[in-house]
Design a protein that fits this description.
The complex is a heterodimer of chains A (about 400) and B (about 120).
Chain A: E1 4-13, E2 16-26, E3 31-35, H1 42-50, E4 57-62, E5 65-66, E6 77-80, H2 92-103, H3 114-124, H4 126-138, H5 154-166, E7 172-176, H6 184-201, E8 204-209, H7 212-218, E9 221-226, E10 229-234, H8 236-241, H9 246-251, E11 258-265, E12 268-271, E13 274-275, H10 280-288, E14 293-298, E15 304-307, E16 315-325, E17 329-336, H11 347-350, E18 354-359, E19 369-373, E20 380-383, E21 389-390
Chain B: H1 6-14, H2 19-47, H3 51-56, H4 65-70, H5 80-102
The chains are: A alpha+beta (about 400), B mainly alpha (about 120).
Amino acid sequence: MPTITFDGLSKRFGSTTVIKEFNATVPDKDFLVLLGPSGCGKSTMLRMIAGLTEISSGKLSFDNTVVNDLPPKKRNIAFVFQSYALYPHMSVRSNIAFPLVMDNFHWWHHIPMVGGLARRAILKRADISQKIDKVAEMLELTDYLERKPKALSGGQRQRVALARSLIREPAVYLLDEPLSNLDARLRSQMRAEISALHARVQKTFVYVTHDQVEAMTMGTRIIVLNEGVVQQYGTPKEIYDKPANVFVAKFIGAPPMNLFPVDLHGDGLAIGGIVIPDSREVSVRVKEHGRSGVRLGIRAEKLSVSAGVSPVSGSIEAHVVVVEHLGAETIVGFKLGAAIERLAVGAAATRDLYYARLPSDLQFEVGGSCRVGFDLSDAVWFDNDSAERIEL
Amino acid sequence: MDSIPYELEESARIDGCGPLSTLQIMVVPLVAPSMAAAAVITFFDGWNEYLFGTTFITDKENWTASTGLASFTGEFLTPLDTVFSAAFVFTIPAIIFFLLMQRRIVSGLTAGAVKG
């Protein structure tokens, strides 16, 4: 079972570089998620692993064997496409069995009629139909084996695509946004099914998605990509708690991490002229680093917000702009400073907007004043110029 | 053929198809309806060939059916009964050909391959 190693992998289309210098090692049996916004090169990356797209430079190895020039079939991989790519003229049974049929393909199968009959004979072989039945049972497709793909629902098609990848028992499973065409309920169900599948088959999965919920829930490791550059490689917890830079901080988490611009102000740190309580210790360290300002990153659930104007010790003044009730919790969007009479609209409405995740029993009113409390022990710090995370 | 999703061919490649088997097993069955439609159109095009037939073919033996049909009209007499029976015979091969091919001319055979 292979460990996948990317050694300075890059991809260029003409003069456009899509992936720059990609280095990583994916241990065997890992569930690696490639996460990034649209057009960041994650699908290209996956297609390079599959051998569908040529590698411009660098080395891709499976267990120390360079596979750059191997055709897809020889790489012992399975690929699940975003659009499923089921063969519409074949029944579900033939679709699932197709990789096995092709394993038994001979040159004389090209002869018209003869080839068709030979392929049908392969389908009927006891060992192959046994395998089909086993996989179909695992994915609950037994009742649909004789149907054509067009007679299946989205989730069933998705399962057929998975079954087709399972049947050859490949060493690596490559999945290209397989859930993006499903509705929300089916998506969460398939998410669980794919995770269970990974646990059961114990093979390496490489999963491409732009959905961070999928990445966080399914991945054992995540690579965050942006514009062809790896932003961070780590476990979901590392990426959530300690984002490597401002991009990752903003990309991961819903709502995204709050990033407050912080300046040195007398003995402490201040956000827009408002001094953060208990910030003296950190400000000393900021000075030691020779910086005049940094960015303070803090997750929405680590903030405490209380309605009303009455000063609470250790908090700063703000006003509520958005209130989103989610049932179990409430997301409160706020801006720093005293309440203003007229709320901004358009792009100005989201500028300098920060979010807090609070229990749903707290009541907030849009436009009302509130106090925001910080606990600096939960904060991460980013450099103003490089946007990289710094230890303070 | 351009309307066949590219993923299908790629998927076939991963499953072990070479270029020839991809063409044979994936592409041809999927474009069969379009090929049938094209066959019907060209057949009728040929069958209806009249203008070139009357203009250029001088030998009676080589006349197309439509030209032959038109030749029934004489200077003094047009045998309408013969014209109509010949015209009826003339349509039979076309109807048979169409009946054979119409099953193949079904749109949406690729429905279900990919979502959307």
